[in-house]
Structures are given as structure tokens and as C-alpha cells.
Amino acid sequence: MARSARSSSSSVTSSSEDEQPKVINGTKHVLVNGVSKDEADENKEPEEKFEPGMKSGMKNLYSGKEDKKGRYQWQDEIPEDVGNPAENAETAKWALLVRNVKVYNDPRRVLAIHSIVVQSPLLKKLLGGVLKNYPGITVGLNRLEFSGRFEPLIHRWAELQKAIDALGDETEDDRTTKEHANLLLDVLTKEFATLIETSQDMISKQVMTYEHLWTLFQPGATVFSRQDGQETAMSLQETRYGQDAKGVPCFWLTCKYLDWDGTKFGSNKLNLSIPAYGGTRKIIQLRAFPIEYHHEAEALRTRLIERGAKAEALAGPNYKAYHGIAWRHGAFGSKDKYNVKGRIVIDTYGWNRFNPSYAIFVTPLTQKDPVQRLGGSEEGDESDGESYDGGDDSGMPIDGHFADEDDAAKHAPLTTEQKLICTPLLRGYSLKNKQWLNFFVNCVKEIEWQTDAFDRLVLPKNQKELILGFTESQRKYKETFDDVIEGKGRGMILLLCGPPGVGKTLTAESVAEEMKVPLYMMSAGDLGLDPRRVETKLQDILEMCTRWNSVLLLDEADVFLEQRSLHELERNKLVSIFLRVLEYYEGTMFLTTNRVQTFDPAFQSRIHISLDYQELSIDSRRMVWKNFLDSSQQEHTISKRQLEELARMNMNGRQIKNILKIARLLATRKEAKLSHDHIITTLEVTQHLHNESQFTERARGTIYT
Which of 40, 112, 584, 589 is the most buried (most CB within 10 A)? Predict the structure, then answer.
């Protein structure tokens, strides 16, 4: 009997233990008669079989309880600790939804506003006017949410107050809007009253602390700064607190300015930093500050708009004069500065072609800037006029190539605000320094042309007409002639040969001045003597000259065009390079030499016109003397008889120029007018070098006769 009772008790205990739920991997498993629910389900009548993925409907899985490492298993039951959502149909009826979080280590309060959701359509309509054009704000969304430091509302605090004060009581909507707006104003005032009061007090006194800098800079505002010593205005995109490259705390400003990439105007970004500082600092002493705080704000805006208009006028290739500092990128991020006084060619497209590492690329003004949207985004947003949607800062142009230069003239005129934030930099080539440099807009001048240069060139009239006619026709009609191979033989090469000082170099210079085109004077130093680099440099120079329709002068060309020999292989390489490259030059080139007999025969077929300059005749020397005397501002007392006497002296043009230069200095020293005696005195002192050279020539002639 006892055994039977014990057995029965054991059976009951076993049965109750089997029915207790077991938890495995965070999932409850209930055993019924020693069989789990899953096993019991398997013992049911078989359901209809489906191929994988073919049963209509969906199956929900839920994350189970996490372990100490945050790992979990998926389960098909809803977790027990899941409550109801805080925001629902009940909360959706309120005009404002204010989320609060706990605050620690602050004895003055225990809660702080985390975010505010504006749900009132009337209030959103009011905020649409207050926050118009504020980057990142789309007031037309169903959920307009503000969080963080509530920058949009703090920056537009004055506008918000004015908009609320302007509300009337005529209609029910007006009264409701005013009620909702006052609710928002009360919440913000209670939370940020001290911040707003402190910020406005400092702004009224033209000072600011580092902690409150963000209240001073409103996205979309025009910011003033100095870049490379130049006054610069930029449009502020966003601000943030962070660190610089050295880990020093600073306040970052991301700004936008306008630049020209050779084919179009577009926007570029620039990051400015304000290092951390203690106490207050005058706003105008900051590295960057809103332009309205400048002591000459209106005059500054006028200057910057005028400079922007000048930069727009200089878009595309331009041949100008320059007087000022220019710079280029040096080693380790430095800037190498140059003092440039001379003529330059402004050419951003050429800059990109010959300096691809520092090429300029811009975001087109017709696209949209990437801005951080509050509460999402919406099509048709009018928050920012010139922005783009890609946000690619890789440093490469779109699709890997630059736009066609022919499209440059089609760009729309810049607006006043766009001219205001236009860059002060131009990219171009200094013909004197032989370098691609960054130039400043305000240092660019118009060229003062020497209109009488070609007229004062002492050459036979028919010879001058021939040279000018050929060069001008070549410039106009070079596209009409081509070789069997496209692009070959379009150029015009003129050889000017003769003794020194008879006007060979002056011919090329005066032709360029007469045609008002750049003159590129190429010498051996520009190319070097390494054949591997000579060809690349020569091709670049010829391409630049073709782009600018410039006159190319290769002075003392016999250095590169000397006849090839069987023993000087390096020189043969140089000559071969010139023979091949000149064939494809499409511009006008002047070669000058006084050793034409040393030219390689292969060059004869590549030279279109060869002009032989004879020793100056008496009439030519008289004209040279007269031109130099008339061009000087210094008065002289030289009579026609004395001029005739000077013309009979056997000198070339360069010697005449040097004699007159020294004679003028002698006359200036004595504070007298330039006289015949001054010239004779100079001749007696300096002519010995000329006499020695003539004696050497006569001696050499007697040896070889």
C-alpha cells in the first residue's frame, strides 16, 4: 500500500515537473507529458507542403534576450519586456511633442529637452517664413523635428519673436497659430533663456566667447576672412566644434566660394578654423566673422562685388599685364611666392592641362549642395539655391575629364551675391618667369601697347610687309591648310639670319606687339639638354603657344638646330626631337641665328620663309640713331649734320643703343642736355671692344683667304 502511494506520488511529481517550462537560449520550451511543444506540433496532422519561399504571407522573428556581450538568438515569440510605443495616435494630436532626458551633475535641474517635434500645421506654416533659406530645414514635412543645440531656432530667435508679435486675432486660425507659437516660445525661453540673453548681450558689445561662437555664425550668412592677405567673402555652410591637425581644440567653419574651372563658374569648399581661446574676444579680431560686423561693411561689399565682376570678365584666356605677388604650391604644402612684373596669360583651362595635380574643379551652380537635413528631405525644397547632391570631395572632375572649353562663353551672368563670394585668385602663366602661378585679381592690369614698335623697326618696307602679312594670315587661316596627316604642317616657321644687332630679335618682338598677342621667348635654359625631358617640355611650350595664338621666338636657334654628326649622339637626339616636333607646330615661330651655315639640312624643308639681314646701311643707322633719340624723354642738342656723322660710324643697332644709354647717364650726371660731345666721349671710352672685335674678324679673314 505504501509502495503504491509512493509510486503514485512519484508519478504526480514527475508529471508536474514535466509541465514546468524550460528556458533554453532565452526561449521558453514547455514540456507536456515529457514532450515539448515543438515535438507536439510535429505530431499533429501534417500541413500542406510548400516549396521553399512559396507560401503566401510572412513570418515574424524577434530578437531574444541579450547576453553580457550583447549577443542574442532569434525567436518567434514577442519578447515579454516589450512595451507599447510612446508616440501614438494620442500624442499625435498635440501641437508640440517635447522629449526630455535626465540630467546628471547639474544641481539646478533634473530634466533637459532632448528634442522638440512640431506637429501643428499652423505652426509649421509660421516657421516656414521664419526659417526660410536656412540650410537643412524642410518645414513642409509631417514631422518637423529640432534637437541638439536647436541652432535654427536660436539663430532665428529675433525673427521668431517678430513673426509671433505680428500675428493677429482676426480669424480662428490666427488665434490658434498664436497660441501654438507662444507655446513653442515659452518652452524655448524656459530652456534657453540664459543662453539667448548671454549671446545677445555679447553680440551687442561686439565680443564673443569661444563656447558661444556657434550662436554668432548662422548657416547661409556671408563670412569675411583674409586668405593670402586678400579680402575674401564666403557663404557659410555649417559649423562644428572639433580639433585641428595637431589636436588643438578649434571651431570649424565650412564655407563656400565661387571659382572658375576654365569652362564654367561653380562653388568650392574651404574649411576655416578658429582656435580655442579664453574669455571674450572682439568679433572683428576673429579669423573669420560675419561680414556685417566689419567696420566698413558696405564699402567692403562694394569692393568685393567689383572684384568679382572683374574676375568674371577675366574668365577664359586673357593676355594682361601684372604687377604684384604671385605664388604656386611648393614642397610639403608650402607656397612659393614670386614678385611678378610683366605680362601674363590668364588661362585656367591651360592650368588644368599642364598642372593636373593642382587642377581646379567646381560644383556647377545648377546643382544642389549636400546639407544635413532635419527631419528628412523633400522634393522641391528651396532651402539652398546653389548646391549639389553628390557630395564627392575626391578631388577629381566629374567623369574624369574637364568640360569642353567651347562651352565657356555660354555661362550665365553671375548675380551680385555670387560676385561677392567670388575667389580673388586667377590661374595663369607668367611669360617672364616661365611658370604657372596663382595671380590675384586686383594686381591684373591692362597692357600698355607699344603701338609704334613695328614702325620703328629699321627694315626695308617690303620686307616688313612680307613678315607682318605672313604672320597675320597664318593666324587667321591656319585651319584651312592641312597635310596628308591631320594636324601636320599647319604652322609657319620664319628664319631670320644675319649678324648681331641688325634687328632679328626686335622683328619678332615688334610683330607680336603689332598683332597684340603674347611673345614666348624660348631659350636653351627652358628646355635643358636631357633628351628625355626636352621633348616633353618642347611639346608643352608649343601647345601653349598654339592655344594662345602667340608668337614663339627661339633665339640663337643654332644651339638646337646644328647639323648632326656621327660622333655626338646626344646632340643628334636633340636635333631629331626638334625635327619631329616642329612638324606638328600649328603657330608662328621665329628662329634667329647668325650661324645659318651650321644648320642641319633637314631643317631647310621645314622653314617656310628665310630672311637674310644685312649689315646696317648708313641710312639704316641714321634711322636707328633718330629713333632712339626721339623716343627718349631727355632733351638733346644733336644737329642733322652731327646725326649724319654718327650714321657713318660702322655700328649695329645694339651698339648704338648701348652708346646712347651711357651717354644719357653721362649727361644726367652733369645735369645737361644730351650733346654730341657726350656721345663722342662715350665712344672713345667704350669703342675699343668694337675695334678689337673688328680686328679679330679681319685677322681671321686673312688666315682663310
Answer: 589
